[in-house]
């Protein structure tokens, strides 16, 4: 069975998903993109998809709509099509907008909330997915398959985890970039490395460290760190500096502030 999969919005996150599904015969993909220049770009890059600037047809109960517009534009955009999406499955990839808000806007209770992250564009994403009880097991399997195309999935036991995952996977991408920036900048400014060399060296080290974690799933992260940290050695001095300055506390505060902002956004959209 082929499922009609309509993307409402053709931005970066939507493209990360539909680009990985273009050869999947299980889906007939259509994209709604109201920006003419972007619509033309998508038509050129994805001739196998139907690209529309408006949603003209009513979606039925077997169709899937992925809402991938900017949260601040969501209410107005959804209001323009709400009469045509009352029966379909709705998947939101928008941060900060609760399912109930989307239900209130659309009159459709079949709302699934997801939170992917930007490495999805490389097929290395991590996506939290919350499906309400009225979603059948068959529908859930189809939904999971969409996001498994862009990385791993985390089936959330309740909707709150879609917000809680923001400081764990989504915003954390930027946090990691920020941490890497610090190493690169100091390597250039203090030790005389070129920016290119510093970036390449730090990037390779981060990739190697991540690969070590992946290759050793039964070894605790603390143990992997301990194996690199010799007593009275150079690494230990760096770790002690982090501990003295409360790096883990700073990380926890950043995560909490990120999560709290998600809760604030939910209230704003309500």
List the helices and strands and how they pair.
Blueprint: E1 3-8, H1 12-21, E2 27-32, H2 36-45, E3 50-52, E4 64-67, H3 71-79, E5 89-92, H4 99-106, E6 111-115, E7 125-130, H5 137-148, E8 151-155, H6 160-164, H7 166-189, H8 195-215, H9 221-228, H10 234-244, H11 247-269
Overview of this protein structure:
The chain folds into 2 domains: 3-156, NAD(P)-binding Rossmann-like Domain (Rossmann fold, 3-Layer(aba) Sandwich), CATH 3.40.50; 165-266, Orthogonal Bundle (ProC C-terminal domain-like fold), CATH 1.10.3730.10. Strands 3-2-1-4-5-6-7-8 form an 8-stranded mixed sheet, with helices on both faces. It is an alpha/beta fold. Strand 2 (27-32), helix 2 (36-45) and strand 3 (50-52) form a beta-alpha-beta unit. It is built from 11 helices and 8 strands. The model has no long low-confidence stretch (mean pLDDT 96).
